[in-house]
Amino acid sequence: MSTQQFPMAEALGKPVDAVAPRFALYSAVCRIEQAARAYLAEYLRQRAIRRAEAQLRGLDDRMLRDIGLTRSEIHSAVRDATQGFQLAAQPR
């Protein structure tokens, strides 16, 4: 590897061979962190969807009719409403 690929190696006064493994480790840790964040975001999104469905299921039929839903439409209504939106996780 050349010092062009690792310009900080020259600045640190270290040989490129000493910097490359650390860079590879840092890169792997960043990828793992990114995957963990994506997993957590999806988990929180699914949890918010389940919470919304549970709240709607808790309403009686008259209240559901007032908002234009039937019991059989709850699942699809919540899923369709959340398409394209990032739900913010609300701490409890």
Put the structure in a nutshell.
This protein is mainly alpha-helical.
Give the tags.
rod-shaped, mainly alpha, 4 helices, 92 residues, 0% strand
Q: Layout of SSEs?
A:
Layout: H1 7-12, H2 16-57, H3 61-66, H4 74-82
Helix pairs in contact: 2-4
Textual characterization of the structure:
- The model is unreliable at 86-92 (pLDDT under 50).
- The protein has helices spanning 7-12, 16-57, 61-66, 74-82.
- The chain has one domain (7-82).
- With 92 residues, the chain is mostly helical.
Helix percentage: 55-70%
Low-confidence stretches: 86-92
Overall form? rod-shaped
- Extended strand count: 0
Number of domains: 1
Please tell me how large the radius of gyration is.
Answer: 24 Å
Number of helices: 4
β-sheet strand percentage:
under 5%
Biggest beta sheet attributes: none
End-to-end gap: 50 Å
How do the helices and strands follow one another from N- to C-terminus? HHHH
